[in-house]
Amino acid sequence: MRFESIQQLDERRAFLRDARGRVKHRVIVCAGTGCVAGGAFEICAEIIRQAREAGLDVEAELAPCGGEHENGGPDYVSASGCHGFCQVGPLVHITPEDVLYTRVKLEDVPAIVTRTLAGGQVIDDLLFVDPASGEHQKGREDISFYNKQHRVALEACGVIDPESLDDYLAHGGYAPLVKALTSMTPEQVVAEVEGSGLRGRGGGGFPTGRKWRSAIKARDAHGGTMYVICNGDEGDPGAFMDRSIMEGDPFKVVEGMTIGAFALGSAHGYIYVRHEYPLAVKRLRKAIDAARTAGLLGDDILGTGFSFDIRINRGGGAFVCGESSALMRSLEGQMGEPRPKYVHSTEKGLYEQPTVLNNVESWVSIPPIIEKGAGWFAGMGTEKSKGTKAFSLVGKVNNTGLVEVPMGVTMREIIFDIGGGIIGGQKFKAVQTGGPSGGCLPESLLDTPVDFDTLTAAGSMMGSGGMIVMDERNCMVDVAKYFVNFLIQESCGKCVPCREGLPQLHAILSRICEGTAVAEDIGRIHALARVMETASLCALGKTSAYPVLSTLKYFMHEYEEHIRDHRCAGGVCKALITYSVNDNCTGCLLCKKACPVEAITGEKKKKHAIDPGICTRCGVCESVCNDNAITVE
Amino acid sequence: MLLTIDDTRVEAREGQTLWEVAAENGIEIPTLCHHEALEPRGACRICMVEISNPKWPGWSRLVTSCVYPAEPGLVVRTNNDEIHEIRRTIVDLLMARCPETGPVLELGAKYGLTESSFVKREQDDNCILCGLCVRTCEDVIGACAIGVSGRGAIKKVGPAFGVGSKTCIGCGACAHVCPTGCIQVIDEGGKRRIPRWGVEFELVRCPESGMPVSTREHIEFVRKRVSVGREVLETAPEMKRKFYARKVASEGHM
Questions:
Q1: Strand, helix or coil at B181?
Q2: For A503-555, how does the pLDDT look when each residue is reduced to its tens digit (9 = 90+)?
Q3: For A18, A618, B60, B101, which has the most beta carbons within 10 A of its beta carbon?
Q4: What domain range includes position A539?
Q5: Which residues, other chains included, contact B173 with Cβ-Cβ below 8 Å and sequence gap of 6+?
Q6: Which CATH number fits the domain that encloses residue A421?
Q7: Among chain B residues, CA nearest to A500
Q8: Nearest neighbour of B153 by CB, restricted to A318, A497, A503
Q9: What is the dihedral of CA B7, B11, B15, B16, to 10 degrees?
Q10: Is residue A363 part of a domain?
Q11: Predicted local confidence at residue B210, as pLDDT
């Protein structure tokens, strides 16, 4: 249905809220990419089918939950976006009881239907087991991964059905747009965003309000068509915040952009989505179509005379297209290469017109800022970094997943309280933030508050929010080499320092990892990095040496050990390590059978031996050994 | 507007880049990706200069002079230790890629480099990926016969899928703008070959002198765009004078 007026929208919302109030159990099956891979869609369909078969009153959509239902109301079962706790998916969350089932399989569906939905019992076996205490924890309120978070951008992710406009409306969606359209001027919207202190969530941290204002100023001075763009070309290794938002709350992306377009006087919006995010594209497309049909996008939105529409553009598979000027060239159908930004894109952006480009997380921060006010947002976070920030917490940490915390929380809290510490009780070594433009921070900086400026001062950066945790079995030279290699693949090749400098940086790092480097190579890295930083054309090149520089700064001893002692403490660099059998060996023959090059000799129940001349350091023996009998040095 | 380049007060027009202003005033800033027929691109990064402004004491910044717009009052320094180091490193990097490319070696000599201090890169040829040929073909000629494939260090210039392009007219403009001479245009035996792009053309001969003029495709391409007859276009440059002299003699005008 098309809402011709705000009154019609309000009436529909009232009806949907009433319907929501009648729901007995809200069953939400996480259908973020990770859980979908684990069979979430099948689990969701199966819950609906079996519950109906069992005679339960089940609805798969919100609207039919309205009206009179017997037995205290229907159960509303649907999929949702990412719940964040990817480590233990697929997840099934049941409210109002707040029961969270983890690692759910199709075989668990009968029990969920009969025991929980029909019987009102909690299935202990499906609850999350806290790795520290061994305790079974019932729901989000009990699990430290959840209860230490503060969700703003991710607030509705995993709570609503991302493919249902009804669910979004019942959740309060489009109330902020209505507020902006009816009781605010475009100038007031800009002022509100400015006052909130929101800084760009894509990594740079440029104040969003100021960006909007300079675009308006440029348009007023030189005329032209204003464009708004949502940058969904997330590509940092280990980062999936934006994907989760686009998959889990696509209407809010659309609404945020619509409010922005109203403030900026724009009629044309683009969402540039990474090619490798098909589910995000599908859900965004559904959201745009649904919003258009409902009169929330397109001509004369809600009968107010304001018109705005959005098109989706799929990225071409290049990391550099996350850089704003390259993204705009790519949108125009040209090669995705950055251009010098001496003239800002707010002045001459897409098609040389004034353009505002914001990241996904920035756009979804707009509706709550308009609804709750600048003061509410500015009340969270630190003095210069307001609000909250979503991170994807990955690597050697117990609870990997998507987390959101107020700015200013320390990395220790994120990694140890929310993340549950390091896997297998190993020792923490470093945390990498900011993706390939960021850096690795050591344990001594774990109490650093996470905000734009302190991370930059520490030699890393906020970036878009990837957080990769590393333990003693990681080699920091190897990590630096990994990121440099990533950037070699992703450099566009337009400017010489980045295109030619990265392979040379890689060559030096390879020498270090192979034990053929000399002490002067450290100086060579610094000299080359300095030129790459000052002379490269875009941020990708300028920051491309940061992973190397930050590891040099905090883990210089590892570089020195590689060069001087030919030793890799992490046991990673193949040329510098040897595998040997220690006295834990029980003579089980497992490693001997597994070794692909027959480097292991030994008899049953006698200690085995590895011939270092034949051994290729593949690590298979270590992974099959049950007795911790393989030493890597 | 007035600005200062290397202690000299110079006049600049709105829309000019720092590189253009410097060049106009006889101040040379090295570059490997600039051509007056094309929009500047800021790719080689050799033309970096330092800018400062008396309005903001203590503030200075390194910028690419070929794309930075001239601003009134700007103070530009075209060389200092840091700029020298940047240029030297960039040339050093290019020498690792193209150890036999003349202009790179000449520039290297200026910075005291006889060979690269970096690891020699594996490569097929002496292309420095400045992109001038591609942009000339597309933006100036309009033939779009060559483009760029791949990205980063393995980026390559050439026709799509490495197969000689049907849209190539064999005009040779790409070779004309190439700063390294790595694009060869070979006219012999009544044919023109550009081996790098995998194309070969018949050359049209001047009816008067028998001299090869250009390719049929090139002549037709030009004929569609200018109101000059084929008889002129197919005439060798030396013969054109005679042609026009006869025309003026018989018709009283060109």
A1: coil
A2: 999 999 999 999 999 999 999 999 999 999 999 999 999 999 999 999 999 99
A3: B101
A4: 476-565
A5: B136, B137, B140, B141
A6: 3.10.20.600
A7: B93
A8: A503
A9: -60
A10: yes
A11: 85
